[in-house]
Request: fold
Amino acid sequence: MLDIQYIRDNPELVAEKSKQKGYDVDVTQLLGFDRERRDLQTQVDQLRQERNEIASSMKGGKPSDELVAKGREIKDKLADLEHQLAAIDEEFITLLKTVPNMPLDEVPVGSSEQENVEIRTWGEKPNFDFEPKNHAQIAEAKGWLDTARATKIAGARFVYTMGDLVRLEFALWQFGLDTLSDQEILQKIIDDNGLKISAKPFTPILPPAVAKQAVFEATGRLNRQEQTYKIEDEDLWLNASAEHTISPIYIDEIIPEEELPIRYVGYTTAFRREAGTYGKDTEGIFRLHQFNKLEMECFTTPESSYDEHLFLVAIQEYLMQQLGLPYHVLEKCTADIGRPNAKGVDVEVWLPSQNTYRETHTADYIKDYQTRAMKTRLRRRDGTIELAHTNDATAFSQRPLIGIIENFQTADGNVSVPEVLRPYMGGKQEI
RNA sequence: GGAGAGAUGACCGAGUGGUUGAAGGUGCUGCUCUCGAAAAGCAGUGUGCCGGCAACGGUACCGAGGGUUCGAAUCCCUCUCUCUCCGCCA
Reply:
């Protein structure tokens, strides 16, 4: 959620910036609810004060008929006002939640992902002296993927992954975990990018793959029917990213400042309905209802969250560089960063078969938009309390495997294994 | 899944329906004492919301949500979670 005080102070700006992100927010109505809510709150508090004064004047004695009658009158009035307050409050919160996070001024204004801005490219696109295949062709030929049988079992957009591709996937997770646990590597990335943050390593974490609805809503990430699977007869939704079950870990908690930053690298299987993508990316493992992902999630002080975001992007690039995959980095425009984001960056890998870059990583700069709803706060050394900031970013999804297969394919239909992954592949150079 | 017990502040732990936001202890902070530390003594130490420049005032919160009552941490109902025993299971 956005800070209501900020909205009160900057109503036009909020409307304007919301529009840039593609949200039409009725700020006037929101502020109307806000005023009404506060008026009612004041009245309710005053009545409660009267009630408490009468009650405490009893001190064990029996109240007079007169006082009982007065108390009863207050009770009735109070019940009425409390109901009004609850109703207004609900409308207020519902509307407040629709207000997106404010994009930073540096975020390019745009109306679709077409207007994302390329800020860096890295690596050499491969030149093949043969006709390159796409990853699905190679993987099916190798027996690494069985889409037909998976469809029989679970339907479209599910797949059996088998053989060396499974080993390659586990190698990717292991490489990611090792890198993010290595303080020296993290320190070097921080220094190379001129960041002023701690090099505290990431703690590996395996979160639940489901969350209660209220928790999911607090993360600002529940897209309901469109994108998320609900478990029938349970108050549970399947996570569509480890971020959904890691970011709310400190819900209702106050974290001592000295414990920050808290960095997690979490692995889960993620589930997405992928509504509205029928006919897109139907081959191979590019877009599945079920996929695996290694995700970074950080809790920081407000003053260090921006550098933390840049740090996460730098880590993503480091990981891609270690694999040797050509990529570019996009600064996402206002229309593409998503409701909770103040800024967002995508890393996209070069795919020879599509002759274009495709998304492998995303990094979200959230500020306090999630923690306000989750009530995740930090306690300063002097005792003052304020909202913590969250940042999340992909470490690895399965998509870099596509990049590896396509960019490192050989004329005879094999794939050469990136050097950094070989130790996890029993030393195999080619699969 | 069946039976029983329970859920109070950072932690432990009291709490007869009416000055209980909550005793007592621990921890933490400050001060006194000390060359210093320990010990001891004194004082302070929850969070949200509303109002206020602030000091501060009001209000809510004793797992969550409803209810009874003039008045609920205390009584009733529902739910969630934890523990013990049985069953089942990787």
Residues 38, 41-42, 44-46, 48-49, 51-52, 54-61, 63, 67-75, 254, 375, 377, 383, 385 of chain A lie near RNA strand B (CB under 10 Å from a C1').
